[in-house]
Amino acid sequence: MGQGFDLHRLVPGRKLILGGVPIPHETGLSGHSDADVLLHALMNALLGAMGKGDIGTHFPDTDPAFAGASSARLLGHVIGLMREAGFGIVNADVTVIAQRPRLSPHYAAIRASLARLMEVSKDVVNVKAGTMEGLGSIGEGNAMAALAVVLLREG
Ligand code: MG
What global pTM score does this model have? Predict the structure, then answer.
């Protein structure tokens, strides 16, 4: 079992991409890659379950090769490592913490995208979100965070 966390700032002039899905919003996540906070938390959970560190060690943000990188492509690499290590996914559960926009209209698209990227059935992927009740940097709309938990099986 592995758990993952990530947080990125929300800034004007960036696209908002969550779980590989573009979400219409006036700000987007800032970062070295496409800053897909949901996929970053998910990759950290997968790497954690395998005992293989975190995305910072696998994809250092000091490496120009990862500037603007698609997080979906990075997830593909992590899934490859998982298969090489002889693991499969039992289930994955992700939570996005965001004040705005409302994410429930996008749950189905994000769930389908995660299932496709991890090559598993949608039935074993769950997506949900919560707000910070207006409190703190997330509550003020200046950041977004994500949490993920995954359970792996051998074979
Ligand atoms: Mg990140």
Answer: 0.96
Distance 133 CA to ligand 1 centre (A): 23
The reply to whether CATH 3.30.40.10 applies to domain 2-154 is: no
- Residues 86-123: tens digit of each pLDDT: 999 999 999 999 999 999 999 999 999 999 999 999 99
Domain boundaries, the chain: 2-154
Tokens of 28: 């987007």
Summarised one tens digit per residue, pLDDT across range 17-44 is: 999 999 999 999 999 889 999 999 999 9
Give ion ligand 1 contacts, CB < 5 A. 6, 40
62, 72, 96 from 103: Cα distances, Å: 31, 19, 9
DSSP state of 62: T
Contact, 120 vs 90, CB < 8 A?
A: no
